[in-house]
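quick q for whoever's on today - can somebody do inverse folding on this one?? i tried earlier but teh output was garbage lol. tokens:
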């Protein structure tokens, strides 16, 4: 289980470093109101990796919301 978590953290880090996180107005998944509501949230350090509705990987739901993106359910 720890190996999977480490892999997910590594993958999420690579995507973030590569600039693959959601950019404002880059797709129809971005929600400006959601971004404005959560842009200053202090997210926890845990990083299980979640997939946003834009198909991109975010560290956790809080991180996705800070980018104005809901996670896939």
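ok took a stab at it. sequence:
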């Amino acid at each position: 289980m720890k190996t999977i978590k480490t892999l997910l953290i590594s993958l999420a880090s690579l995507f973030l470093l590569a600039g693959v996180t959601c950019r404002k107005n880059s797709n129809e998944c971005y929600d400006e109101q959601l971004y404005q509501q959560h842009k200053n949230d202090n997210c926890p350090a845990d990083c299980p990796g979640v997939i946003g509705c834009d198909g991109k990987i975010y560290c956790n739901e809080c991180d996705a919301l800070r980018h104005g993106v809901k996670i896939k359910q």
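fwiw The CA atoms of residues 20 and 56 lie 7 Å apart. also Residues 2-17 form the longest helix (16 residues). so keep that in mind when u check it
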